[in-house]
Write a structure and sequence with these properties.
Elements (H helix, E strand, L loop, with lengths): L2 H17 L8 E8 L3 E8 L9 E6 L4 E3 L8 E5 L5 E6 L5 E5 L4 E2 L1
Parallel strand pairs: 1-8
Antiparallel strand pairs: 1-2, 2-5, 3-4, 3-6, 6-7
Protein name: Secreted protein
Organism: Pseudomonas fildesensis
Keywords: Signal
């Protein structure tokens, strides 16, 4: 390959690289903690630092019944009364963006 062809090939590759888009992964994150008054507060978001207002966050019993249906508020949080039945929290931001938190993993603040 001549020097001219090599230079053109490198320039073409650099030009194509400039037009490519970068897909940044953002993984779902959710944290729940027990707060005063037998309340649980969950905060959801993504690993890129973005919040998750409006994302579904349901409290589900071990028998798969939805105990507390919910969506995160504008501050990406949801606070609810701790259920008397055994439960887990399901943060569901769509396919591949789901986090489950078992009640045993929820610690006092």
């Amino acid at each position: 390959m001549t020097l001219m062809r090599l230079t053109r090939a490198c320039a073409a590759l650099m030009l194509c690289a400039g037009f490519s888009t970068v897909a940044l992964a953002h993984n779902p994150m959710c944290e729940c903690k027990e707060i005063a008054g037998e309340q649980i507060q969950c905060t959801g978001g993504f690993s890129d630092g973005s919040g998750a207002p409006g994302v579904t966050l349901d409290v589900i019993g071990y028998d798969e019944t939805i105990l507390v249906p919910g969506k995160l508020g504008q501050d990406s949080t949801l606070t609810f009364k701790k259920p008397s039945a055994e439960f887990y929290v399901l943060f569901d931001a769509g396919p591949g963006h789901v986090v489950e938190i078992d009640q045993a993993d929820i610690q006092p603040q």
